[in-house]
Specification:
The structure holds 2 protein chains of 2 kinds. Chain A is mainly alpha-helical. In chain A, 47% of the residues lie in helices and 3% in strands. Among the domains of chain A are: 6-60 and 214-313 and 444-504, no CATH class; 338-440, no CATH class; 701-804, no CATH class. The longest helix of chain A is centred in the middle third of the chain and has 28 residues, at 318-345. The model of chain A is unreliable at 1-72 (pLDDT under 50). Helix content of chain B is 31%, strand content 13%. Chain B contains 12 helices and 14 strands. Classes of the chains: A mainly alpha, B alpha/beta.
């Protein structure tokens, strides 16, 4: 492990801790990465930010020319750039329908068109809907019954509060956020190496939702946690958002690689927080929006000094101790081999490293060949990046490549030394099975390595890396905010991202709150008030109900950026409570249901389908957080060592957001149902319907095993009466009992399927799949039971299960 | 109601496409009632008309994993052989950033014999004796360029047009633009002959920001090519068909409540298609019915070429079944005790001899077989691919329908390092634009609205190389 640069970061952090009297959290001794543990809260401004006058930035020093070059764009008239104003609640006739102010904003346009909203959904349908939306799984029959039978006036409030208080809420909301963060547990590209610590960021996100961390703070920590809350490991972990870019450890032009990474970070931040497609301005001035190329590169310059740091020690808990113990076993077992390898490499350490440099572009080599104390900030980046990825095998290549006469540094003994090294490698590989398969003892973050001086950022002609033109300084998009960023350099960091975070998380920013409330609305109703959830620019859609959007954004800020309060208000609204039943007159008047006179049904997303099947089968492992897991994959997937199923069987039935996100090997069962792609910001799940999905749900051995378990559960809970069994099955899956027509079809199926299975017996080889998990299978008629498994499996495959109505 | 996401989708995807298919155009759906057929017009995979008449229906994209040194296959350079062992003259290095060892070592030539073949007089080295017999079927591009000193980014750029992951692969664009010609099989298939998935995995056939329905389906080696194709172990065929009947009944009862919900109907129907795929997919890759002569043609009788030959024979069977885009990734060979792809840093002689032997006869066989079955006119075969370590000039070729066969476009300098005349350089974008053109698609009009940008397969680049088209 490379510790060389870690001291630099720590240095930076400790300097600050000493300088400021604030009680810094001990980086080594504070518990991090464990769910439910909240580090000291970070003070983040929620009051309106006071505009910094330009001359105040004299202290700031970020080069005076910024002011001279500040773009003087005319104030834009574009709707999303205008300040959020609290709209007046419209007058409506049907006042009884207005349970929350937001209902009035929905009802007014309906009344204008003469459409009445739908009646409330029945309670059972409602609790299934709300549980799927808030938790991402179906409710248990008990949860359904309790709500249906709750005669209290506050039954809905109690339900909403129960849903929002469960850690399952944070798990569900985290998954949607991770889509935006292009979160993955691996680097991507051909090597696609494991990122063993990024799950701590995933857990940070779950925690943030469960603790109802104010959105403004959530945003700030992810952009600049290391700058605004130094010493707080939680805030450091939050920068995993920036760290999550896809990366190529095999890259040979590190100067270009830096540009690629910065590009990814800048474009991601623009899309996620501001719904601005800033990336369009990388190659040319934005074609639709008031964003110049220069402004784009000004945004890039906020991130010019960020480095990936993956070796920050995490506080030690169960996971860390287990990891260390495994690691030690491997170290002890391989010490002899590794010592021998080191001895072989000793004489060529320097030459081998220098030789390896030659594999890089000339600009990269220049940086690598300089003494550390003479590095420019940009070269510092290159150096750190190189050291982060340096491997002994790079050095050993010196022997191999110089083992034949004619090679530049040929020596006759190199062939033998190379052979010896490779033999030791083979020997070492035999111990791979001792290596820890999950977890880590470190934090992955981005920091500025303790340096406040920043590499220059240049405009790139036509977005081409090789063609730098003018240098730029940090600046906002003038059409949105023409103030200068108030950058306060820190002893250990440039302070640039803190300034950016301050602007983005400001109540005065016209986009941040609007963008987020719109994302939440989109989750609940399947369509945002602005349909293009990550494009609030001119090429995006206009808000279908601008007053509603501004009401939500304004009240979001006024309620202290509380995400839970936002969810609660929607969950308790009349618009959310409506039935999804088909209404012909609405279909005619508003064919796309933009006005929401009927509740829009939605296909469950990939994780909702898998997790709900796990809940139904009673097999879900409910523990929250921790290292990512590898459930088994089909034998013919061919993922090689990129996917080794977890040894612990409990790990196979965790919620889907704990499944290892390997960029090159998406988990097949989820992928087929349009899971998020981790390559870029994933703003909205597609809904496609394909035969490959049908194959996955109908044929997967895993899903079939869950159906066997569900059949066993039904029999255990309902007893031997078949009608009771059918009722129980429908209660579990659909929160209702089957209709007479359905019961008829199901009974008929059991009878014919029983005969079909009996015919198999005639072929001589006779084996059937019976329900699992039963205490006593003695009384079971195996043929009838096998038919019942088929029934359960079919009902779980039916349309109703994969939708929420 | 609101349940028109597929229709919305169509509006989105209709951007720039040449209009929608009439229901009558949908092949393979004769068995469905007309109501069903009209629903399928909103199917994201419904066959769509190209922008102008297509020259080919299918593309076989031969990806040589690891990137062969085309200087040892097609690009005959007597000057290089003369200068071998010397430092490269500086005049050849102009404009190269350097580093990465490429272009910085001493010049190296392998011990090849070279001959001209066919009426076109195209040069082939002795590594490709069988393919050389088809010289006049090929149109060479000897001025290919790309970006990248490492495989990772070059492969990504070759398949998706970008150095960072996230954009759709060419096959995904094609499936999106043209839909499927045979709904019983995926329209975009990836074949490989390794024990595990090719390096980099599914990113190289991903749908990027297009809906996942357009990603390539990796066909696994063996009898059961698609994941989850086989029934659970103890479920007999009769049992499954009984279950399907029940499913259909339950879905019917449910759909009756939502008469306008096309998505629910489509989901019900997807199970019928899936059931058909369980038969059609294994049959499509089943080589048992192929004649001995055909097997011999593809090199199945030689251990060295058997594995790759089987893959190409599968490719031909998929072409016959209307699959639009077939991406074939070549598998590794044992070189100096290691499993290696074409990336022959050391042991070039052994590496390329073995790889060439694995692919030469199968590719020649594929061209001959397509020709004799009358399929070559409607199929495009592309081979060569991004050349690592030398992105400044390498060779690729096209064969098949609409291709200006028997010609060579562009040239490298006298040592084969850089494209000689930069105005003839063919970047991956240009290749993509040309392939799309042969499929009847204008790369400038094949667009998808993503985050405010009207995206196209060639990003903001690309030109059709007219000289390659007959």
């Amino acid at each position: 492990m490379n510790k060389q640069f870690f001291s630099t970061i720590l240095f930076g952090l400790s300097v600050l801790a000493a300088e400021e009297s604030r009680s810094a959290v001990d980086l080594f001794n504070n518990s991090v990465g464990e769910i439910g543990v909240q580090a000291a809260p970070v003070a983040v401004e929620t009051a309106p930010a006071v505009a910094q006058p330009a001359q105040a930035s004299a202290v700031v020093n970020d080069k005076a020319q910024v002011v001279a070059e500040a773009p003087t764009a005319k104030k834009s008239k574009h709707w999303s750039y205008q300040p959020i104003k609290a709209p007046e609640q419209p007058n409506v006739n049907n006042k009884g329908w207005v349970r929350s102010p937001l209902d009035a904003f929905v009802l007014a346009p309906l009344e204008a068109k003469g459409i009445t909203p739908s009646p409330d959904a029945d309670r059972a349908a409602f609790v299934r809907r709300a549980t799927l939306d808030a938790w991402g799984v179906i409710p248990t029959p008990d949860e359904v019954t309790n709500f249906v039978n709750d005669a209290g006036a506050d039954a809905y409030e109690k339900l909403a509060d129960r849903l929002l208080a469960s850690p399952k809420y944070g798990e569900r909301q985290a998954r949607r956020w991770l889509d935006l963060a292009r979160y993955a547990d691996s680097s991507g590209f051909t090597n696609d190496e494991t990122r063993e610590s990024l799950w701590r960021y995933r857990d940070y996100v779950i925690n943030a939702f469960n603790q109802d961390k104010p959105y403004s703070q959530f945003v700030s920590e992810q952009l600049a946690g290391d700058e605004i809350a130094p010493g707080n490991p939680d805030a450091l972990i939050a920068t995993g958002f920036l760290r999550s870019y896809p990366d190529d450890s095999n890259s040979r032009d590190l100067v270009q690689k830096k540009f690629q990474n910065t590009t990814d970070i800048t474009d991601t931040v623009g899309e996620v927080f501001l719904a601005q497609t800033v990336g369009c301005a990388r190659c040319h001035n934005h074609k639709f929006d008031n964003i110049s190329m220069k402004e784009y590169y000004q945004l890039q310059s906020f991130f010019a000094n960020v480095h990936a740091v993956d070796n920050i020690p995490a506080a030690k808990g169960k996971v860390e101790h287990a990891y260390e113990a495994d690691w030690k076993k491997w170290e002890d077992a391989t010490k002899d081999i590794r010592d021998k390898q080191q001895a072989l490499l000793e004489p060529i350490k320097e030459a081998g490293r220098k030789y390896n440099y030659q594999r890089f572009s000339l600009a990269t080599q220049e940086a690598l060949n300089k003494p550390i104390n003479q590095l420019t900030p940009e070269e510092r980046w290159v150096r750190h990046r190189y050291d982060n990825n340096a491997k002994d095998s790079d050095v050993a290549a010196f022997y191999a490549d110089n083992s034949q006469p004619g090679a530049k540094d040929y020596k006759p003994e190199y062939a033998e030394l190379s052979k010896q090294y490779k033999a030791l490698d083979k020997e070492l590989k035999k111990f791979d099975k001792l290596l820890p398969t999950q977890g880590s003892t470190t934090i992955s973050a981005v920091t500025e390595l303790g340096h406040a001086d920043v590499p220059p950022t240049h405009i790139r002609f036509a977005g081409v890396f090789d063609r730098p033109t003018d240098e730029v300084q940090p600046g906002f998009i003038a059409a949105i905010n023409d103030e200068q960023p108030a950058i306060e350099p820190l002893a250990f960091s440039s302070g640039r991202r803190a300034a950016l975070a301050k602007w983005i998380a400001s109540p005065k920013n016209p986009l941040t709150a609007r963008v987020y409330v719109n994302r939440v609305w989109d989750q609940y109703f399947g369509r945002g008030i602005v349909e293009t959830v990550s494009d609030f620019g001119k090429a995006g859609k206009k808000p279908s109900n601008p007053e509603l959007l501004d009401y939500l954004a304004d009240s979001f800020i006024k309620q202290g950026w509380s995400i839970k309060k936002l969810h609660r208000e929607i969950l308790l609204s009349s618009v959310y409570r409506q039935s999804s039943d088909y209404r012909e007159e609405v279909a005619k008047a508003d064919p796309e249901n933009k006005l929401l006179a009927v509740f829009p049904r939605q296909r469950l997303d990939a994780e909702q389908i898998r997790d709900s099947l796990l809940v139904a089968s009673g097999k879900l492992e409910g523990n929250v957080g921790g290292p990512s897991v590898f459930p088994p994959v089909p034998a013919n997937l061919g993922a090689g060592d990129k996917w080794k199923a977890s040894k612990d069987p409990h790990d196979q039935n965790r919620r889907s957001l704990y499944i290892f996100t390997r960029r090159s090997v998406p988990y097949p069962l989820l992928q087929t149902f349009d899971m998020a792609s981790a390559q870029q910001v994933h703003s909205k799940r597609d809904v496609t319907t394909t035969p490959l999905q049908a194959l996955a749900l109908f044929n997967s051995d895993t899903v079939f095993e869950w159906s066997q378990a569900l059949a066993g559960r039904v029999i255990t809970e309902a007893g031997n009466d078949e009608t009771a069994q059918l009722n129980k099955l429908y209660q579990i899956l659909f929160a209702r009992t089957p209709s007479d027509a359905e019961k008829g079809a199901l009974q008929e199926f059991l009878n014919t399927q029983e005969k079909t299975i009996l015919q198999k017996a005639a072929t001589g080889k006779f084996a059937v799949s019976i329900p699992t998990g039963l205490k006593d299978t003695q009384a079971l008629n195996p043929v009838r039971a096998a038919a019942f498994v088929d029934l359960v499996h079919t009902v779980a495959n039916s349309n109703e299960f994969s939708y929420r109505f | 109601m609101s349940n028109k996401s597929r229709r919305d989708f169509l509006v989105k995807s209709g951007l720039g496409l040449g209009g929608l298919a009439a229901s009558g155009f949908l092949p393979g759906f004769g068995g469905f009632s007309s109501a069903m057929a009209s629903d399928l017009v909103v199917d994201p995979l419904a066959a769509k008309q190209p922008h102008f008449p297509a020259k080919v229906k299918s593309v076989i994209w031969l990806h040589m994993d690891g990137a062969p040194s085309t200087l040892d296959l097609y690009d005959y350079k007597p000057e290089l052989i003369k200068l071998a062992g010397q430092e490269i003259p500086q005049s050849f290095m102009e404009g190269i950033k350097g580093g990465v060892r490429g272009g910085t070592g001493k010049l190296y030539a392998t011990n090849r014999t070279w001959k001209q073949h066919g009426e076109s007089g195209a040069w082939f080295s002795d590594l490709l004796p069988n393919l050389a017999q088809h010289a006049d079927k090929l149109a060479f591009i000897k001025s290919s360029v790309t970006i990248g000193a490492t495989h990772n980014i070059s492969i990504l750029k070759l398949n998706t047009g970008d150095l960072n992951p996230g954009r759709p692969s060419l096959g995904a664009w094609i499936q999106y633009a043209l839909g499927t010609a045979n709904p019983d099989l995926p329209a975009y298939v990836v074949l490989y002959n390794d024990k595990k998935e090719p390096t980099g995995g599914s990113i190289n056939w991903s749908s990027g920001f297009l809906p996942a329905v357009y990603q390539g389906a990796a066909f696994r080696p063996g009898d059961s090519p698609i994941l989850f194709l086989d029934r659970p172990e103890l479920v007999a065929a009769q049992q499954q068909s009984g279950a399907l009947n029940l499913l259909n009944r339950l879905n019917g009862l449910e759909s009756a409540k939502y008469p306008q919900d096309t998505e629910l109907k489509a989901r019900n129907q997807s199970y019928e298609l899936a059931a058909r795929m369980q038969t059609t997919a294994p049959e499509a890759v089943d080589l048992k019915k192929e004649s001995d002569a055909t097997k011999e043609l593809y090199g199945l009788n030689d251990e060295a070429s058997k594995s790759y030959g089987e893959t190409l024979l599968r490719a031909r069977r998929l072409v016959e079944r209307g699959v639009r885009f077939i991406q074939v990734v070549s598998g590794p060979q044992e070189v100096a005790g290691d499993s290696r792809n074409w990336d022959g840093h050391t042991n070039l002689e052994e590496n390329h001899s073995k790889h060439a032997r694995a692919v030469d006869k199968p590719i020649a066989g594929l061209l001959a077989d397509l020709k004799s079955r009358g399929l070559l006119d409607s199929t495009l075969v592309e081979s060569g691919n991004g050349r690592d370590h030398n992105p400044w000039g390498y060779t690729q070729w096209l064969a098949g329908g609409g291709v200006n066969a028997g010609t060579t476009y562009g040239a490298t300098d006298e040592v084969g390092l850089q494209v000689a005349d930069k105005s003839t350089a063919v970047d991956t974008y240009d290749l993509h634009a040309t392939v799309l053109n042969l499929l009847g698609l204008d790369h400038l009009k094949t667009t998808f609205l993503h985050n405010g940008r009207s995206e196209r397969p060639t990003v903001v680049y690309g030109k059709v190389i007219k000289e390659l088209i007959a």
